[in-house]
Design brief:
heterodimer; A: alpha+beta; Helix Hairpins; 3 domains; 68% helix; 15% strand; B: alpha/beta; Spore Coat Polysaccharide Biosynthesis Protein SpsA, Chain A; eight-stranded mixed beta sheet; 10 strands; globular
Chain lengths: 347, 406
């Protein structure tokens, strides 16, 4: 059989196969275009879809959060311990300062009283000192005259004008008067010392003032210590509050849930679709993107904080938040989209 | 995969920019490189073959304007053949034959035979040195015939074409878009191929060929088939390609101008683009089948234009198929949109400056061009690949009926 003879049959067979292939392919392309267009339109107008995300302990983000949480918690504990120490320090310093502060008025009072006493006794003693000087001068004058008398005693005794007893008594009286004069002079000198002590500052006074200054300095230092400690307490308390808030915020995130539970099913809800988010709302998964759907769980919680992601269909930037899902069919978490509230096309 | 897509698009972009960029350089800086030796004293006999299907009164206007050309009346004739139109085209052809006695030969096929066989039938009536094929809805500049014929001064020149503009550039957004398409396809794109006298497709709206060459190619046209199914469209590209394979030069003289109606409705436009694309895809297969025949016969630039350039279109089609799976809005990326608008703005300025009659009123319609470009690449190529067993007249399925004298 020649090739030319069987060529029409070959051509016919090839054509038939080609036409079958062409029809199938063209309809497939058309169907594809139609489905693609419908899909794009659907996701452009749908307000019920969410994009599921599976979180687990081994996720990089979860591990990262675990590390950061532990570090933050340790910092909080360290700060709290430090605050306690500082508070004890403040208490002790305040107690000590109070005691010193009580001492300070007593010192002042003592100084005042001392000064007042000096002011009172000083002038009196000065007057007495003057009188004493006068007395001494007069006594010296009297004793000078007495000395003349005393010089005649022996002559008068020898002359028998006076008795020996009288002479002895006169001599004793003279010596006693000289002794009294000397005592008066000593008393005058001592009085002068006393007056000096009462009228000019003495080393004792300066020592007292020095001690007072030291006391005041110590009180001031304690004040600074207390103030600094209080500021540090305030600062560290603020840090603790912030870190606590951060930890609390972290505990509200799905990653925390993943950290605690192990595997968590969450879903990103675009802001445009947030109206459907209600705790307890039914979650649906579809066999063919958005048709042939079944309930696969419920929405259990809404997490705070904005999330950024890529649109599962259009691959554009997406902003929204995460919700926690409780899925009866864990494979649904692997779907590209899920639907919340109701089936997207009612079937 | 996204990287692959980007590479494909980048390749397409680079090749297109290189080709158009080089064309612009040639047009602006080295016009002599893209021109051929012309002898305007040359006056061979010319038979103008006008195949017609459902063109209505346009065929009459076409005959009238070609007859008004500045060329000796005794040196050219019009052979108008009606391929059993479903409208009044045959009556308009008969009216033309009556109005221009001795200059128009009116013919009608015994049955609808397609454009290729209609042309061959008409060529058998002709005895002229040059055969000039025109579209039946075109009108012509007065020097069109002379511009075309003058290029045959070089004996190696086998096929010469002209540039086509639109008669309805501002009819609607669709025709405005096509103004750019025509400029790119029939004017700028050809410059790159004119550079080496290896134009891969001289359009059937205005195609002049040596009679001897046409007769050499005629048997091949008649036996064109795809697994036994006769191929009726794309004869212009087929003729040009075989002229190149036979060692002749092919050239488009952009000074030879004609104007045609662009489809104003989407189905017509789709059919037209489908017909053009299919002839291109068919030709690509022919090229690869006869690849070794090209080597040594055609200029390397011609081989490049026949083999590599169309291939980028296919790879781009592949890219368009794959892109939605990764990013449905891939082609709406701001860079893509801005680039398309920028190209549109440049095209608008160039067209408005060089072809004032083609200036469009709303340059923003280029945005539609970008959209069409995606649809075109996405679906048309696939459709063509899967409908090789089907041929028809394309966009001329149905026309308005206006009787002669109305």
């Amino acid at each position: 059989m020649k090739l030319e003879e069987i060529k029409p049959a070959i051509n016919s067979s090839v054509l038939m196969l080609y036409r079958i292939f062409a029809v199938v392919t063209l309809y497939a392309v058309l169907a594809g275009v139609l489905v693609f267009g419908l899909g794009c339109t659907f996701y452009a107008v749908s307000k019920t879809w969410v994009a599921p995300v599976i979180l687990s302990q081994s996720d990089k983000d979860t591990l990262d959060l675990t590390g950061r949480t532990l570090t933050t918690q340790k910092t909080v504990d360290d700060l709290k311990l430090d605050i306690e120490k500082l508070e004890d320090t403040v208490l002790e310093a305040e107690s000590h300062k109070a005691k010193l502060e009580k001492l300070l008025p007593a010192v002042d009072e003592a100084i005042v009283q001392e000064n007042r006493h000096k002011r009172e006794t000083g002038p009196v003693l000065a007057n007495l000192h003057q009188q004493k000087n006068v007395d001494v001068t007069q006594t010296q004058g009297a004793l000078a005259k007495l000395a003349e008398v005393h010089a005649n005693i022996d002559q008068e005794l020898a002359a028998g004008l006076i008795t020996k007893t009288d002479a002895t008594q006169a001599t004793v009286a003279f010596v006693k008067s000289n002794g009294d004069l000397t005592d008066s002079k000593i008393a005058t000198t001592l009085l002068k010392d006393t007056i000096w002590e009462k009228t000019v500052p003495t080393p004792t006074d300066l020592d007292t003032l020095h001690k007072k200054a030291e006391l005041e300095s110590e009180i001031a230092c304690l004040g600074i210590v207390i103030d600094t400690a209080r500021k540090q307490i305030a600062n560290e308390s603020s840090q603790v509050a912030k870190l606590d808030r951060a930890l609390n915020a972290a505990k509200q995130t799905p990653l925390w849930a993943a950290m605690q539970v192990g595997r968590t099913n969450v879903a990103l809800v675009p802001y445009e679709n947030q109206a459907v988010v209600k705790e307890g709302a039914a979650v649906y998964d579809c066999y063919l993107s958005f048709v042939l759907c079944r309930q696969v769980g419920t929405l259990t919680a809404r997490f705070v904080g904005e999330q950024h992601a890529t649109h599962p269909i259009f691959r554009s930037d997406l902003r929204g938040f995460l919700v926690q899902l409780e899925l009866t069919d864990s494979d649904s978490a692997k779907s590209r989209t899920l639907f919340v509230g109701r089936k997207p096309l009612l079937f | 995969m996204l990287t692959f897509l980007l590479y494909v698009l980048a390749l397409r972009l680079v090749l297109s920019l290189a080709k158009y960029g080089w064309s612009v350089c040639l047009r602006i800086g080295h016009r002599k490189l893209v021109s051929v030796k012309q002898d305007f004293s040359l006056e061979p006999t010319v038979s103008i073959l006008l195949p017609c299907f459902n063109e209505g009164p346009d065929v009459y206007n076409s005959i009238r304007t070609i007859l008004e050309c500045d060329y000796p009346a005794d040196k050219f004739e019009v052979i108008a053949t009606d391929d059993r139109s479903r409208d009044d085209s045959w009556e308009w052809i008969q009216k033309a034959a009556a109005d221009f006695p001795g200059r128009v030969i009116a013919r009608q096929n015994p049955k609808n035979m397609g454009k290729s066989r209609t042309l061959i039938g008409a060529s058998h009536v002709s005895t002229s040195d040059i055969i000039l094929v025109i579209d039946s809805d075109c009108i012509f500049a007065k020097d069109t015939i002379r511009q075309l014929v003058s290029c045959f001064a070089d004996p190696k020149m086998g096929v010469v074409g002209g540039a086509v503009g639109l008669r309805n550039p501002n009819a609607n957004a669709l025709t405005q878009v096509q103004t750019y398409v025509y400029f790119l396809a029939f004017d700028l794109w050809k410059t790159f191929e004119n550079w080496t006298k290896s134009v891969t497709c001289v359009g059937g709206y205005l195609l002049a060929i040596r009679r001897t060459l046409f007769e050499q190619i005629e048997p091949k046209i008649l036996t064109r088939n795809w697994f036994g199914v006769e191929v009726k469209e794309g004869e212009d590209r087929y003729i040009t390609h075989h002229a190149l394979l036979l060692g002749y030069d092919t050239y488009v003289n952009t000074n030879a101008r004609c104007w045609t109606y662009a489809p104003e409705k989407y189905p017509q436009f789709f059919k037209q683009q489908y017909r053009w694309r299919k002839s291109g895809v068919r030709d690509l297969f022919l090229t690869y089948r006869l690849l070794w025949s090209h080597v040594g016969t055609m200029h390397p630039n011609g081989i490049y234009c026949s083999t590599i350039a169309p291939l980028t279109l296919l790879t781009f089609t592949l890219a368009i198929f794959v892109a939605p799976f990764f990013n449905p809005l891939f082609f709406l990326h701001p860079i893509t949109v801005v680039m398309a608008l920028a190209i549109g703005a440049v095209l608008h300025l160039v067209v408005a400056h060089h072809f004032p009659d083609q200036k469009i009123s709303n340059p923003l319609t280029f945005a539609f061009f970008g959209f069409w470009w995606i649809i075109n690449s996405f679906y048309l190529t696939v459709l063509c690949l899967l409908t090789f067993d089907f041929s028809d007249w394309g966009s001329r399925a149905k026309k308005r009926v206006k009787r002669p004298g109305q």
